[in-house]
Amino acid sequence: VAEDMFVDRLLSAIEKKRSHVVVGLDPDAAALPPTLRVKHGLEQGDADVAAVVGCYREFLSGIMESVEPEVVGVKIQIAYFEALGNSGYRLYEEMTAAAAHLGLVVIADVKRGDIGSTAEAYARAHLDHAGADAVTVNPYFGTDGLEPFFRRVRDAGKGVFVLVKTSNPSSSELQDLRLETGATVYEAVADSVNAWGKAVIGESGYSSVGAVVGGTHPDQGAALRTRMPTVPFLVPGYGAQGAQACDLAALFDSSGTGAVVNSARAILYAYKKTDADWAVAARAEAAQMRSALWAAAGRA
Amino acid sequence: VAEDMFVDRLLSAIEKKRSHVVVGLDPDAAALPPTLRVKHGLEQGDADVAAVVGCYREFLSGIMESVEPEVVGVKIQIAYFEALGNSGYRLYEEMTAAAAHLGLVVIADVKRGDIGSTAEAYARAHLDHAGADAVTVNPYFGTDGLEPFFRRVRDAGKGVFVLVKTSNPSSSELQDLRLETGATVYEAVADSVNAWGKAVIGESGYSSVGAVVGGTHPDQGAALRTRMPTVPFLVPGYGAQGAQACDLAALFDSSGTGAVVNSARAILYAYKKTDADWAVAARAEAAQMRSALWAAAGRA
């Protein structure tokens, strides 16, 4: 096992920054600040992909520099980059490197999942080549489809967050189906995550195999905290999706750690609710979220 | 609903080509023909990504041109392109366009799945921007995470193949769990696929919402054929993963249609078993597979 474990770096960052906040990089051209849109020519009907990429670069770089003191890391949602084609994919790689350069924990939110040989290619793409610290993965294929990611957890100090209970309304359709054992599908996945993480427990007592647990289902989240006592949580659904800090108290452990919470739109587009500059507005929103979560975790 | 339905184009191609074969584009630098490796400088230790991309381009273009008469389409496994970074991603887009230019049905094997807003970005990336005819998707998020793909099925004549039962050994861990209803998880997903497809049945009687059903589980595949009578199957696992034509007979309907079968390594690297040129060897292997499947489907 690598000496430098992902989970220990993640939990150290929480203590150092006094923050559980991860900022989600989900760029949306239509929501970008008007000053930037004008500067990069996006207000004209025929703006090309290169202009959008240039605008995203300036915006996301500015956001990361501004919010860095308030957040432990970034969650880069690759879909919004893929939507721009290969130049968007290149920007994803650039932003991954830029976040790491700022000392942020970089979670590539790629939600990949496939058979073993293909998963090896995905792990190479995102953990080796793009250089993310951790990736999100989908459990549908089972252990052999995740093993290439786990190998990098063991050998290269990388991290994995497995989808357990997602934040969207339809998540119940498959994830909440009840098994003949009495457990739900997502609880069975949680038990697998426990098992997968056993071999990669860090000095913190937590595992480098984490779980995605949506913040929009507080009761289920609380039960999962008990069910997976050594598994770090990546919690989406804060802010624009509806979860509030008070809903998330039970996702932290008794020491007020063990989870990081992602917010994308509420931070990125905070300028819409204020007269402040977009970077200033984003930092203020991140700071406010940091305080609210720190209190919810029982730290303040 | 679009006048030109994906599933009707797919089933017409089966009849026109008298083939159920889809060739998988899963490029692997180490397995490429030695003549190409030498030509592109891959035998030197310090070959860069551009050299690998150039080699893949020549190889995959040659494969597609050579096997085109024997196959209905291509399944492009994006992971192998992502593994090369942004220039690999650009090649994925190039190969998608090249396959369409040859008149092949293009299935982007991306296995994406996420919340609705993110799924919209993925659908834009692969169905709009890259221009694939169909994509593979993961069902873990439920209906709202698939709706952006379904909208393009309805409005733009696109297709979707939902993972139901995958071909890998660990697929049983989650997919075969038994629910309190008596059905397995993958059977419950199959029932959802039936429901999702109801609104997009084409003239062929089949739906443009298809299912991925691994060829490595013949009994389960046969039962799924009965359970999903109007759902076209994309069947991986042929050849290198172990499935043979005789195992797949029950995946076709009584008219010998309703399924396409993917083979990647066995076709791409057929040169290893013969003295023939790699493109010739690939075509011969595809032709052999075409005949074997045509017979298995009860057509010959």
Brief summary of the model shown:
The structure is a homodimer of 300-residue chains. Chain A has 300 residues and is α/β, with parallel strands linked by helices.
Based on CA inertia axes, which overall geometry of chain A fits? Answer: globular
> What's the oligomerization state?
homodimer
Structural class of chain A: alpha/beta
Strand order of the largest sheet of chain A: 1-2-3-4-5-6-7-8
Question: Which sheet architecture does the biggest sheet of chain A show?
Answer: 8 strands, parallel, barrel
Order of helices and strands of chain A: HEHHEHHEHEHEHHEHEEHH
Greatest contact between two chains = A-B, 60 and 60 residues
Q: How does this structure look, described?
A:
2 copies of one chain form a homodimer. Chain A is an alpha/beta fold and 300 residues long. Helices cover 45% and strands 14% of the residues of chain A. Chain A is built from 12 helices and 8 strands. Chain A has an 8-stranded parallel β-barrel, surrounded by 8 helices. In chain A, strand 6 (209-213), helix 10 (218-227) and strand 7 form a beta-alpha-beta unit. In chain A, helix 3 (49-67) packs across helix 12 (278-296) and helix 6 packs parallel to helix 7. The model of chain A has no long low-confidence stretch (mean pLDDT 96). At the A-B interface, helix 4, helix 5, helix 6, helix 7 and helix 8 of A face helix 4, helix 5, helix 6, helix 8 and helix 9 of B.
